[in-house]
Fold:
Amino acid sequence: MANVVIDPVTRIEGHLRIEMQPKDIETSTGTWQIVDKAWSSGTLFRGWETILRGRDPRDAWFLTQRICGVCPAPHAESSIQAIESAFGIQPTPVATMIRNILHGAYYIYDHMIHTYLLVGPELGVIAKYPPMVPPALGKDGIAKLGLGSSYAQCVTMQRKANEIVTMWGGKFPHHASEYPGGMTVKPTLDRIASTITRMAEIWPFVAKTMVGDLLALAEANEHVGEAVSSLLDIPFRGLQDVGVCTGNFLSYGIMPDPTNYDDWLAVYDRPGRRKSALIHAGAWDGDYKDFDLRKIVEYVKYSRYDNASGLTPDKEDAPKPNMNKAGAYSWLKAPRYGDKVYEVGPLARMINTFGMKWKIPRVNPLTGEDLGDFEYTVLNPKGSVIDRVAARVALTLLIANKMFEWAIALKGYLGQKVTNYRDVPESGEGFGLYDAPRGALLHYLKIKNRVIDNYQCVVPSTWNLSPRDDMDQPGPVETALVGTWLPKDLDVPTIASVLWPDEDIDLTPLGVSATVNWGDALATALTPLGLAGLNLEPANSSNFNTSLAITVVRSFDPCIACAVHLIKR
Structure:
């Protein structure tokens, strides 16, 4: 049986190919196809580590933001922390607080965008939830059917979050205000007030709309589980049984405590958890474990490099590309922690900080209105599509709450020294460890003769989208795709009709005298745009619907431009 290939994977950053080997399963209702094996391939090569060599170390945080236009801010933060480590300086408390506000606003923007624009469309279709489906019928569809209502609100609200980043960073993307030891921007009452004003608009969207949409998805998920179980005659609970990974979760933490920065730095010397930060470091394998930097290595057996395999980041050299390497199928390396496969990202952050049960207050910081706590219990301890989405929503709410607290606290830092300046040292080396929205992000810097001698990045999508390692262990996404249903010769409207057969959608607001089921409603929106065949991929003289498979991949929020850093010379 020929493999099913998605190439390129769309609605992500960078270039990604997913190949899946299907297999037949026989049940009382027929013969069905599921994924037996999967391969994740980064198909673009770049050259950031090579580009940085020989430059002034202070350039690194500025240049590495250009690795990605979606997640530039975390690259800046990881890089600036690596520079500070190599310089032997710490940022001032006021600078740390400003950074928390800048990066908190960035996180809110990013998690909104992913929830609604990147993974949300498939979820809206699967769960029969119009607010998360793209506004394919424009303003009329939003006003009359609610089609894409939350999607459209997200576009407005993420802009408000980016305005906060711009106030403290100078611009977005690629902010320009950080500096080794501090910031080039000072706190002012105007900036503080403007931050709070924008958060006053953002917070209700996060606390009401995002949380409300997640709860609606969770409710619909039960029906989806029952419908698929009946159709395929297999045990299936819902989206908690889709995208299941290893149950190992790695986090570096985010938003350090400005009054306890020593706790943040301690993990560079010994295992620890950064428990004073908003989000903790950790290596969860069923229970809380300290994070140990020295357990990180990268393998290249199936990567297109002739570099030595199994090295720690500080021992790696410049990339040695080999397009024709036998058995290699990706430009991504295979990072492993203690030689095991670990998932990184929002679910890893929430589990390493709060375990399997989360409780976050929803009290409006300005009005005092209490919406009740947002409570969530992880549905699959090994990870799943719905748990990853829930983690993004939970973390967005957590940060939205903290933004007010940080902004108000910043008033107490007015007039204080912002930056600890130091000249570039003759030599030095340092790590920067910070979680990007997509997961654990590592930058390593070595200085020799006052210029960059070596630079390495181990980024979230290198972890999650990695190929197999030297022990032939598949990466997280390769693992998570196994067992995913690949419907054959069934388009999206047809599957939607099977999952939701009730004719309860009134199209008369659109001038169509009909009440139809969910699938027919989707066909009304998709067919004029030529999208009725969405997510169908040809193989074995059939068309396989990859909607579930692509939802699994997108639940990890791939950023392949970040994950591949090679230049062929």
